[in-house]
Amino acid sequence: MDELLGMSIGGAIFSGNSSIEDEIDRLPIKIEEADVHLREKGRDDADGYGWVNLPYQDLTKIIETADWLARFDAIVQIGIGGSALGNRMLVNALLPPFYNELETPLRRGPRFYLLENSEPATAAAVLNRIDVSKTAFVVVSKSGSTTETIAHFLWVWQIVRDKLGNKAQEHFLVITDPKKGALRKFAKATGCRSLGIPESVGGRYSVLTSVGLATAAAVGIDIEKLLLGARQMDQRLAMRQQIWENPAWALAALNVIHARLGRNMAVMMPYGDGLLAFAEWFAQLWGESLGKNGFGTTPVRALGAIDQHSQLQLYMEGPDDKLITIIDVQNRPGFELPRKIEDDVLREFDFLCDKTLGDLLSIEARSTASALIKAGKPVVYLKIPEISERYVGALVFFYEYVTALVGLLMDINPFDQPGVEQGKRYIYSLMGRPGYQEYESEVEKYFGICSKFEIIV
Questions:
Q1: Is-annotated flag, keyword Cytoplasm (predicted)?
Q2: Catalytic annotation present for 309
């Protein structure tokens, strides 16, 4: 198997009198125990651990459903958080820029839209760009009760039913818990198509389930290669090695040690527009998995080279509270710059001749890493051969694995989200959902504290 990713580490290896490398060398037993626990629980398909098995799943039903979706002119996926971010990430990485504006054959499948946030202007704009009679709507919520998703769904369902009558259900795919929940009941009652989300897989780890794969396959992404990359990464990480020979072990240990040293921010800075949404996906995976019991580090999304011109000054000379990850891509499309500059007034830029924009982006990634290391900042430098299905699948599985390991090393559950649930209860109370009225007084109490300092301009 050729290299799936390369990892280099530099910068603040020492902090005071304590060597981070020495600290990490004391962690191998705990890391190996966490790794064994992760794999044993995955093998048992324990709650939260089912994503470990996803690289080996049977894709038959997902591909069959994707073939049906591909017959439509457009697909609108309705979901939020883990029910949308993975889809955004796959489309951003693996489809051409401005995909929806392309004509066939450059556009290999239906146009693809997401309805996520409860923003009326966005919802109306999506609806104005589609013909509902030629559109498939994919409704995704594992619980079947996610407020933003259900609100969008009810709105769209009414519109489609008003236009298509008893054929409306032929335009809907429900992806939810295989046994329970309101959306599962809806699918059974209407006979619309449905897929299940494995009960043992949480939303933010679900991109390699039907949640991410059904629409990905419909728009022309090779989901078998995605799983191949994830499978090969899993096999690579399963090798019992020294800590510095296993990239997931090393990266997990680095994050734990730097968190102990007060570096409580995890900057994810890929170089290349195709990995912009990967940083967004990472932010949810990292933040929701690890932010518990006073632990965790705050994910910060950045994009090279754009954020060299906005955030890098802070990283270089601001507080030493960040562990910075840079992702570079080895092989990029060419797009050659001029071989020769004819205009005398532009001759000072001769140094750019015979190079490509891709060369420039990779040079900027290496240069930024070098500058940060010179400033004594901790840097993790990852390199993938290219942005393609296989390597994106490998990168996704790698970060899921690292995140889970960090959680276990911090003695927290990386698969629940108790803090999110309180906000949901308050939303239900203010929206008038039966059974949640008791929380309305709490909202008034705590929001009232904020209102005392309201300033009117």
A1: yes
A2: yes
